[in-house]
Automatic annotation (TrEMBL):
Gene3D superfamilies: Homeodomain-like, Jelly Rolls. Keywords: Activator, DNA-binding, Transcription, Transcription regulation. Residues 168-249 form the HTH araC/xylS-type domain. Pfam families: AraC_binding, HTH_18. This is AraC family transcriptional regulator. The keyword Transcription applies. InterPro entries: AraC-bd, Homeodomain-like_sf, HTH_AraC, RmlC-like_jellyroll, RmlC_Cupin_sf, Tscrpt_reg_AraC-type_HTH. It comes from Thalassospira marina.
């Protein structure tokens, strides 16, 4: 998908509004992209994995990565498109990131600036500040790597549809007809995570859209198979460093 190929500017801002359930089909960009959602939840997926962006967070999407984007809730989006020269040293894969109060203000200003702004004027100075600040965004572990191994990939997708905190390696080994040793070796090689780490990430990502919609923590915890809300909260805090209630609308 074209992202201002004829505009010779290092950073370009764009504001959009998407409705609940809206889907942007698979595409890629010729510029690196930073997404920021003021409201709603954004889920991006590619062959490599799934990334979930809660409200007030951001998502880094490098140029050339084919991805699909799905909206949960009304999403007021702010996007930056950066030329490769300006994003040198940034991650070469998708990543959910924290957005500081300063960066939020800069993003709000950037989308009101015309693409062909004066690089030597006030608008150019603001975009130059964005180029500096974008390198200070902390990574947030809201990604779920997906395997390329076909049978394992199908099993992972099935789990994502109905996640359970009590699903076991034994269940997966039986489904795939593999020994425990072969499964654990394959799983880490394909995802970079242990099965337990991946399962916890999947449960966390399943919970976030429901938290953003205002659902009760207890309901979500029990639906995901946790024995009690405290066990779910402990896992959630360990992964994200914040309480589930911090992510509720």
């Amino acid at each position: 998908m074209s992202s201002f190929p004829d505009v010779d500017r290092p950073v370009i801002g764009l504001g959009m509004v998407y409705e609940d359930g809206e889907v942007i089909p698979p595409h890629d960009h010729d510029r690196d992209q930073l997404l920021y959602g003021m409201t709603g939840v954004v889920i991006a997926s590619s062959e490599q994995g799934v990334w979930l962006m809660p409200p007030q967070r951001g998502m880094w999407i490098p140029a050339g990565i084919v991805h699909e984007v799905r909206m949960i809730g009304k999403v007021i989006m702010r996007s930056l498109y950066l030329s490769p020269d300006e994003s040198r040293g940034m991650p070469d894969q998708c990543q959910v990131v924290g957005i500081s109060p300063l960066m939020r203000s800069l993003l709000s200003e950037a989308v009101s600036i015309a693409p062909e702004y004066d690089v030597n004027g006030r608008d150019g100075a603001l975009m130059a500040l964005i180029e500096h600040e974008i390198r200070n965004m902390p990574a947030i572990p809201l990604s779920l790597p997906l395997p390329l191994h076909k049978a394992l990939s199908r099993r992972c997708h099935a789990f994502i549809r109905t996640p359970s905190a009590h699903d076991t390696i034994e269940n997966w080994c039986n489904d795939l007809g593999m020994s425990r040793r072969s499964f654990t070796r394959l799983f880490r090689m394909e995802t970079g995570l242990s099965f337990v780490e991946w399962r916890q990430q999947a449960c966390t990502m399943a919970a976030l859209p429901r938290l953003a919609a205002g659902e009760a923590v207890t309901t979500i915890a029990l639906d995901l198979g946790y024995d009690n809300p405290a066990a779910f909260t402990s896992m959630f805090k360990r992964i994200l460093g914040a309480s589930p209630r911090d992510y509720r609308q």
